[in-house]
Amino acid sequence: MWQFLHKYGSPKIFYFTAGRWFRWLALPSLCFLLIGLVGGLAFVPEDYYQGEGFRIIYIHAPSAFLAMGIYSMMAISAVIFLVWRIKVAAMWICASAPIGAWFSFLALFTGAIWGKPMWGTWWIWDARLTSALILFFLYLGFIALQSAITDRQVGDKASAILVLIGVVNLPIIHYSVIWWNTLHQGPTISRLQKPAMDPSMVYPLYGMIIGLFLFYFCIAMLRIRCEILKREGRSRWVEDLVREKMARYRL
Amino acid sequence: MMANTITNFFHMGGYGIYIWISYAMGLLVIALNLLLPLWQHQKLIKTISKKIQQQRDVHETYS
Amino acid sequence: MRPIRKKRLQIICLMVLALGGAVACILYALKQNINAFYTPSELIQQQIVAGQTIRIGGMVATGSVKHSEDSLDVAFSVTDFTHQLPVTYTGVLPNLFREGKGVVVQGQLSSQGAFVATQVLAKHDENYMPPQVAKKMAKAEAL
User: Which residues are registered as beta bridge partners of C67?
Assistant: First the structure.
């Protein structure tokens, strides 16, 4: 039953699989992002209350979703790594962390830009904004821990545990606007309810979310290839691969 | 008429600067996320190929 | 699943549950401090001294906004539909400040029981719709 984990867990097989997946996912990701971008900027009508300013939601909410989604995937990989000791799972975490850091930064940045004209402030220490900032710091902490420990095995284990510790922050971010009084508004789209957004406005939001998640898988594939090269640089198949590339590109 | 529509589009009802900064930062983050691993991959291949070259040189001097 | 892996999985689950429980307790104990503002009803239950800086949040009561004619002074009431709190403020209001819409004000209670705001923030909700739809909904509500 768990056989497939071990098959795809082999770095060599995964290196080539990752390259193929990147090529398959790149175009759909781009299409969905374009639907979101053009729809959100040009085709969706303005909001009755916030006017044109609400268009920032099409970049802010999807990047916040992605930042949380990446963290949950890192947590799942951490469990797989700690229980089954599958190397690719550890590499997946390492490949995901920088992408998560970038997108949580983007969510905070666009949130501040949106807050200034709408709320009247860049920042407020309410539960939602603070927990989102903590998510950003968790990503940075993970990257720092990874680069601080030179022993790969110890580093992988320690950072997987750090990921699992940080997982309590995810429900806090999601429910912060419900549990406490916050300046941040409640969720516009959630899994169980109809979106609190007019149907004519919602499709670029879905386009952006799907596009960004596909983009994450794409980029994680590229990063995991780097991670495999870094870790398996001395193994036979990597040397063969590099030799082949050398032969192809400069005689 | 056409020029007016374009100006309006960039003006965004007075929120233009906020919207365009947000979207510019979004595109920048997406572009960087794509380029950084590509560069890193190239650099890694170069480092490994250099190592192979060195090994070959060492091998040749001894044989 | 092999026994060693099962054991590792159990340890991980236990660790996450224990940590989650601990954090839940801490957050529950700190509940009041995590709130970004009090509603007018919550304010009554609190022991707030005049001059202490706090935030109050709610809706701007309909018909309560009074602008001064020769200065930036403005007076309005913040309501949560059970209690109301009169607020005075001097300065420029945010664009989204409107009667019947959300607001968060920061400032101090005066000894007369009114609230003197030093900062006014607009709080919008999670609903988005085109102006025509909003108009239709307002009409439907009025009927």
Answer: C74
- What span, in angstroms and rounded, lies between the C-alpha atoms of A251 and A247? 5
Residues C57 and C13 in one domain: no
Alpha-carbon distance A127 to A130, whole Å? 5
**Residue from C10, C31, C34, C37 whose CB has the most chain A CBs within 10 Å, to mutate:** C34
Q: How far is C50 from chain A (nearest CA, A)?
A: 22
Can you list the alpha helix ranges (DSSP code H) found in chain C?
3-29, 31-34, 40-45, 131-142
Within 10 angstroms of residue B50's Cβ, the number of other Cβ atoms is: 11
Judgement on whether residues C67 and C11 belong to the same structural domain of the protein: no
Whether residues C68 and C119 share a domain: the answer is yes
The structure's pTM equals 0.92
Is C104 in the same domain as C126? yes
Q: Which residues contact C71 (CB under 8 A, 6 or more apart)?
A: C90
A229 contacts on B by Cβ (under 8 Å): 41, 44-45, 48
Domain range annotation of chain B: 2-62
Indicate whether C131 and C89 sit together in one domain. Answer: yes
Domain range spanning residue C13?
A: 1-34
Count A/C contacts: CB-CB distance under 8 Å: 114
The pLDDT profile of chain C, 143 residues, written as one tens digit per residue, is: 788 889 999 999 999 999 999 999 999 998 888 999 999 998 888 878 888 899 999 999 999 999 988 888 999 999 999 999 999 999 889 989 999 999 999 999 988 878 999 999 999 988 899 988 888 888 888 77
How many residues does the structure list for chain B? 63
pLDDT above 70 (res A7)? no
What 3-state class would DSSP assign to A162?
Answer: helix
The alpha-carbon gap from B35 to the nearest alpha carbon of chain A, in Å, equals 9
C73: which residues sit within 8 A by CB, 6+ positions away?
A: C67, C88, C89, C90
A199 touches chain C (CB under 8 A): no
Chains that touch A (3 or more CB pairs under 8 A): B, C
Name residues 92-121 of chain C within 8 A of A (Cβ).
94-96, 101, 104, 119-121
**Taking Cα atoms as reference points, which of A37, A15, A77, A78 lies closest to residue A212?**
A37
The total domain count for chain C is 2
Contact check, Cβ <8 Å, C57/A181: yes
Token duo for residue A161? 């545990």
| Same domain? C27 vs C64 | no
Pick from C41, C42, C39, C37: which is nearest to C55 by CA? C37
Which two structure tokens, joined as six digits, stand for B58?
A: 């060492």
